[in-house]
Structures are given as C-alpha cells and as structure tokens.
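User: Could you walk me through two proteins back to back? I'd like the raw sequence and the structure tokens for each, with a short line separating them so I can tell where one ends and the next begins.

Assistant: Of course. Protein one, sequence then structure:
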Amino acid sequence: MSPATAVVLCALAWTVFLGAHLALNGRWWPWLAVSLLPPPLFAAAPLALLLAAAASGSVPGAVLAAGCLLAGWRQSGVNSRAVRRSSPERAGIRVVSWNTQHWNQGREPDRFYAFLHSLPADIYLLQEYLNGFEGGEVWDIDDEERLRREFPGHHLSVDNNSVTLSRFPPAGPPVPVGACSLRVDVRTPDGILSTYNVHIPVQLTVMNPLSRAFFQDMRRRHGARRREYDALVADLLANPHPFLVSGDFNTSAAIGDIRRMPRAAHDAIGANRSLFPASWHARWRLRLWRIDWVFTSAGVRAEQYTFRDPGGLSDHLAQDVTITTTAIEEMNR
C-alpha cells in the first residue's frame, strides 16, 4: 500500500467517525462516553492528516482532512477569537462564577472566603453548596450566617445547592430551574438582569466500564442531563429579560449537549484572550479543557473574561467576567 493510499484510508476513517460523532453526539446516550474524547483531538487529527497528505501528495486525503477540520472545528475548543485585538477595558458589572467542589468541605473556611474576597464581584454565582463524596452520598449544609457576615453588602439567594450573592437588589424571589440550577433576577442601573447559576450533572461515575452498572448509570445520567438542559432552555426562552448564564456545565466543546443552548444565548468566550481556554482540572499542572461556560443575551456584553486559579480549593477554576448592559426594552424571544 502506498503512503498516499494509507493517508486516504485514514482520512476516510476519520470522516466516518466525525460524521457519526456529529450525528449522535448529544442525541444517543451511549455516545456520551465517546464524547469525552479530548476536544483538541478534533483539530489535531485532521491537521495531522493534512500534513501527511501534503507529504505523500494525496489530493483526496487533503480534501477529506480539510473538510473534517472545518466540520469539527467547533468541537475542538480552540478560541479563534483570541487572536483579535483586545478592546480597551471598560467598567461594568463583575461576575464571579465558580464550582466550589463541595463548598469548603475538608478545607479551611478562612482560606475559602479569602479567595472569594480576592475577587471582589458585584455578583457571585457559586455551585455545589453541599458536602459529600464524589459520585456518592451528598448532604445539605447551612453556611448562611457566615455568608451574610462575609458579604454584608450583597443580597443572598440559596436554592438547588447553589448560592447567588448580588450587590444589586433582587427583582423577585429566586426561581429554581430544574433540580440543579438557580435563576435570580436583579435590578441593575439599566434594568432587570436575569442571572442563571447553572450546574449540569456529571456524565459518568468512575467504575468498571465493562460492567452493566456502568451503562445503566450512564443512561440515567444522560436522562438527568437532558432534563436539566431542557428546564434551562425552557426558562430562557420564556424569559423577557436580558440574561447572563454561567456555571459548571460539565460539558466540553466536544459534547453535543451544549448545542441545546438557544440561539439567543451567546458564548462569552470571545472576551477571553486564551487560544485554548481551560477551566478544569484546577489542581493539575496541565489544564485540560473548558467545562464551565458563560452565555449572555442581547443587551449584555462580555468585556473581559478570565479563569482564576483557586489555589487548590476546587478542581474548577473560577470564571471571572465583566459585563456591560444596555438599557433596552423587555425582550420576547
């Protein structure tokens, strides 16, 4: 077999795989395991095939590889907007969103709150307001007294194991969304802004991948994730206010569930200056990829967007985003 033929066969194999991935990802529950592939693979594999096609002189291989690169680019997690010239910093509303990984369980509370104070935000969206074991039992906690003491200038909302702290007064009672997320509407100088504090359940439990229990658990988790996404999307579509959605989606760019977000929700990653932004794993020297997201609607613009190292307090980096809002009429999407 000639090198050119080998390149064509490899490119064809990747084309078939990518087609199946785009068709089944987020739709068929067994593909959830496949979708955990590293997002950079969807750029690295076709780029490698392009180089091999160039070296072997395989035009069909190059065409297939180029097509795969374009078709799978959004799966790669590469932030191509990072190469744009950065805009001047503008004052706005600072929002910090962070999966605390079981709050301050097993850690010093003073360090936990010191980290939050090191990021002085107008709005905090904090997930996993609970204690427990990874993949096992969890239980509710009550840290409201200390929260009120630490943040006397913020309004506190707690529900669905989520904490929202806002310097702006609430425009109504907090609204649980699904079983894991929390909506809080706040009155900003430009009007009401809906904040969504999101936590989508993780895809898999670490166990023997050849066991029946593994597949039963994956199917159950696929259903739970779909219900959470459906509840979030339904609330967003019915919401007349401009919004900011942020939290731990447990979803990389290669996982099709993120396509469920409505068109009115715009990924804020363009305000980030990293070519390959990563929010997990915060305790590892090599950060893997982004599973924490920020979305904004019309009337809300992300000006700066950065990931902050929590210093070992969680496996998630904190999302630090500054937004500006425009006084606009109530929107019916």
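----
Protein two, same layout:
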Amino acid sequence: MPITTSGLTTLFQQSTKYIKQLMNKPKKAVQGVLFITGLMALVACGGEEADSNVTRIGVAIPNFDDTFLVNMKDSMSAYAEKQDNLELIFVDAKEDTVKQLGQIQNFIIQQVDGIILVPVNTDATQPMTDDILKAGIELVYLNRRPTYLPDGVAYVGSEELRFGEEQAKYAAKHSEGGNIGIIMGMMTVEAAILRTQGVEDFFKEKPEYNIIRKQTALWQRSQGMVVMENWINSGDKLDIIISNNDDMALGAIQALRAAGKLDDTIVIGVDATPDGLMAIKKGALDATVFQDGRSQARGAIDAALSGINKTPRDKITWIPAELVTKDNLAEFEAKQG
C-alpha cells in the first residue's frame, strides 16, 4: 500500500535554515550538510531495513496545496495500489527549492529504487539530478520539464506551449478583439513561461488584440482573486482573462463577479480540475484546457518501473492537451468516467 509522508523529521526542518546559509558556499560543503541531515533523519525514524520484495519510489511534490498536483498525487496513489509490492513515499516541498533538495538527499540515503520528481524550480535541478544518477537511482521528472535532462532520465508531461495556444484560439474564436490580461503561475516553472508564451505568440500578429496586463498569482486561487481585484481597481478595461491554471482563473472569477463584470469577460483556464469543470457547468468559466494529470501520474510510475526493471522506455512521454467547453463537457466527463 502506498504511504504518504508530509515532510522530513523535526530535526531536518530545524536544519533547513543552516542549509540556506550554506547555499553560497562550495557545492561539496552543502552536500555534506545535506547528507548528514538526511542520515540523522533516517536514524531518528528508526533506520529500519526496507523489504527487498517491495519496490519503493520516492515522489517529490512541490506543494500539497496545489489542486492539480494533489489530484495527480491521488491518481498516483490509486494506480500504485493496483501494482504488486509497490510503495510510494510522498513529500511536500512547500515551493521551497532548498527543502526539496534536502528531501531528495533523504530519498538517496533511504536507498529508494526510484524517484519521481516534480521540481519546484525547473532551472535548479542539475544538482539533484546528478546526485540521483550518481546513486544509481532511477529518475523520472513529472509535469514540469527541467532545463537539464541528461541521458538516463525520463520525463512525462504535456507540451506547455499547446495550452497557451489552445486558450488563445478559443478567445479569438469567441471575440472580435479586445484587451487581454494573463494571470501567470510561478515564473521559475517552465509551464508558466511556455503557457504565457503560447498566448503571446498567437496574438502577436493580431493587432485587434492587446495584452495589457500580465502578473503572477503563484498558481493560487486566492492570489488570482487579488490580482484581478487590482486590475479592476486600476480602471483598465479587460475583455479576456487567460490564466495559466484553473485555480487562478476561479479566483479571477470571484473578483469579476463581485465587481459585476463577469458577464462581459471571457475567462479561460488550464487543467480541467473538478472545480474548473463545475464552473463551466455554471457558466462562470468559459473554457479550460485539459491537462491529463491521471495519465501523467500513471505514465510516471510506468516509466519509473521500466527503468527499475531495465525494460525499454521513452525518454520523453507527451500527454496530449484537450480544450473543454460547455459544448463538449458532457462528452469529456463521460470519457473520464
């Protein structure tokens, strides 16, 4: 049965501040502290030997408060329960790169068979990747593609540019021009950068559309509402809101509804989360682009097991995107079961 671990031991949490102080020092010094910290955490937990018949995969998630990531985590747990002798160990980095680095070191010390990693920062993965490969542990990156993806490392996810392109196409099909605001995720994550780029590239040659606002809301619904409230209070007229995910779009919808502007604004998200689909049913969210978290979750486990069992696997597995609107919602939900 899969188990969930919400973080490292209290001892490790207390040591995080010292790790941060060492980030400007030589890499070996930082690695030494991380190694000792992880070892102490392992001893504190009892240092029990793992059952050799059980395949153990550590799963590093950036944020357990992110709706899409939690749904994907639940899909992984459900899929793992159908496998023989497979144990998943989940950890939450709370969007902290240093904390995630420590969690990966702890997995290495625990001698897990594989690691599935959704990175906090896609530009800061090389130290983790190199350490995992050096330890002889199979590595699969999931959902957020790192800039550093050497031989022997797999990736499962979607082509992020497509999400932005699909959002932009929908907006253009259902309007004749207007002012656009883009609510972005964390700009240390490739998904936010490329989804935004997909929108910008599509409208580049369409002078009737103007992107007048762009701001990050950190993937969070509450922040999406704050960003939208600020835009409304600025007095700028926004006809189309394109959000990098559903949660931020739902936050924008709350602000637009409170200001009496929702009926005059097109709002488009990404992910097709349960809350996003419900908003489409109610006519609040115009469209979302489905990011198939369930297939990504299964694909990551399959890729990790293939690596562990030394069977062939693709280096990159692309999971296709799909536009969901009120017109095809019933068909989409039927396919999802």
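DSSP finds twelve helices and 13 strands in the chain.

Let me know if you want the two compared in more detail.
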